[in-house]
Each structure stands twice: as structure tokens, then as C-alpha cells.
Amino acid sequence: MQLHPYLGxxxxxxxxxxxxxxxxxxxxxxxxxxxxxxxxxFRPDQxxxxxxxxxTSGALTLNASDMTExxxxxHSVTLALTSHDPEHARQVFDALAQGGTVxxxxxxxxxxxxxxxxxxxxxxxxxxxxxxxxxxxxQG
Length: 140
Description:
Blueprint: E1 6-8, H1 13-24, E2 27-32, E3 50-57, E4 60-65, E5 78-83, H2 86-97, E6 101-108, E7 114-119, E8 125-130, H3 133-136
Parallel strand pairs: 1-4, 5-8
Antiparallel strand pairs: 2-3, 3-4, 6-7, 7-8
Helix pairs in contact: 1-2
Pfam families: Glyoxalase (PF00903)
InterPro entries: Glyas_Bleomycin-R_OHBP_Dase, Glyas_Fos-R_dOase_dom, PhnB-like
Domain Glyoxalase/fosfomycin resistance/dioxygenase: 8-127
């Protein structure tokens, strides 16, 4: 079993997924309403919206859509990234923070790793955890 976060947007899914791709790398696959077999069921103003989008980068798969009915609710989910590479983690954290708000700077934590937290420009919450060397080898 795998968990793949599915983010909801109100017309910003393409922009957001392209932003996340610039931060995380990977392959982006987008399907608009107009490109789908169900296009006739939607209004003309919805045809350019993203029906389903997927960003795949290594073991990460992040899905998104403009067709989520609960957009605008409080984001109660935090997307947690774990890294073993401090430099790469810093690059990703800083990239995700562009236009957003850092709520906890990426800094050493009491458990020996590095931790940071932010809310991105789309209102989604992210955590970055960089594990100490001993933990990445299963020793911690």
C-alpha cells in the first residue's frame, strides 16, 4: 500500500504542480477537463481546468485537481518530506517557501536531525525532516 497526497485547487492546479515540479523535480502529467472522456459533463468555463494532475519524483507522487469540491476549507493535512541529504533538503525547503510563509526555519532539532515547517503560496503545509546519519542507516 502507498499513500499519494491529492491536493485540491480552484483553478490553480496547473500553476501549483508546475511550481512543485520546479521545487521537487520529477515528471508532470496533466489532464484537462477538455482532454478527458467526461468533458461533455462540465461547463465550458471548466474545460481548461485540471481534472487530474500527477507529479512523480522518485518515490514521491503528488496528485492534484481543480475539480475538488472542498477547496477553501482549512488545510488539515501537512505534507512531510524526509531527506538524508541536508543540501538537497535546504534547496527544496527554500524553493517551497518562495511566496509562502516559513513557520519554523529549517534548523537543528532536539532529536539530532534538522527540521523545518512552512505554508506554501497555495496554502498547503509542508514539513522537512533531515535525518541524522545514524538514523538513515537504521541505527537511530
